[in-house]
Amino acid sequence: MKVKLDKYERKIEREADSYQSISKKERAKLEGILDKIRKTRNVNIRISESVLEQLKRRSQEEGIPYQTLISSILHKFVTDRLVDEKSIRRSMQLLSSAR
To answer: How far is CA 11 from CA 47, 80, 84, in A?
Structure first.
């Protein structure tokens, strides 16, 4: 399975050789954060069959399992990074027509 890297991840890969070691204290702090992030729980939700079919189709387009896609969508929502593309395009049109 081919993984798509975002702009930030590609930058990390390009600059990997320039990274420096961190202190043991800072490393322990970061590992604690990572441990918390890695903890997962199973949940059961009811999703309409049509929505599940659409999620599975989109996940195939993205090249990731549909459960991963659902988790990613939920993560983006709770971190305020889930955006409505139509609203953004509408705002961009309004801004450019106002000039």
So the answer is: 37, 23, 26
Number of residues that this document lists for the chain: 99
Report DSSP letters for 49-66, one per residue. Answer: HHHHHHHHHHHHHHTS-H
Tens-place pLDDT, residues 2-23: 788 899 998 988 998 888 888 9
Domain boundaries, the chain: 46-94
Query: Which residue is associated with the tokens 């990390």?
Result: 12
DSSP string, 65-97: -HHHHHHHHHHHHHTT----HHHHHHHHHHHHH
Q: How far apart are the first and last CA of the chain?
A: 45
Distance separating alpha carbons of residues 31 and 24, to the nearest angstrom: 10
**Whole-number Å distance between alpha carbons of 5 and 27:** 24
Q: What is the pLDDT of residues 54-96, one digit of tens each?
A: 999 999 999 999 999 999 999 999 999 998 888 888 888 988 8
